[in-house]
Each structure stands twice: as C-alpha cells, then as structure tokens.
Specification:
mainly alpha, about 80 residues
C-alpha cells in the first residue's frame, strides 16, 4: 500500500473534487479581492497626501489629518 493510499484510508474525505476546487477558488477570489482593496486604499491615500491645504480645508480636513491617514499601512 502506498503512502497516499494509507493516508486516504486513515483520513477518508467526503468532499468531491468539484467541492475542493470550488473551495480553492473561493479562497483565491477572497485573496484577489483583498489585494485589489489594498491597492485601491494605497492609491486613495497617495491622492489624499497630494491635495493642497486649501483642498483639504474644503472638506474639513487638515494637513495633520491627511498626514495621519496617508501614513497608515495599506492593509489598515
């Protein structure tokens, strides 16, 4: 008996290959969405830091507010 056969005998699975593939695709999709969200957040923070003090004042933010938000890591 091979190692794989031994493992399969000791750990029977009730999931079909289609279910396993769907679960893997779900995890990959979630990762891709997270990466795209992080990229968008980083882009928005760069734009915020590029605004003039007058533009920040137009929507009630200060340079300190922009610097605080812009200095956060992309994953937060």
């Amino acid at each position: 008996m091979t190692t794989l056969e031994t493992y399969q005998t000791a750990h029977p699975t009730t999931r079909s290959p289609r279910e396993i593939a769907a679960a893997a695709l779900d995890r990959f999709s979630a990762l891709l969405i997270a990466l795209l969200e992080w990229q968008e957040r980083a882009r928005q923070r760069r734009q915020l830091l590029a605004l003039s003090d007058g533009a920040l004042k137009d929507f009630g933010a200060s340079r300190a507010d922009a610097d605080g938000e812009g200095s956060k890591p992309f994953w937060r």
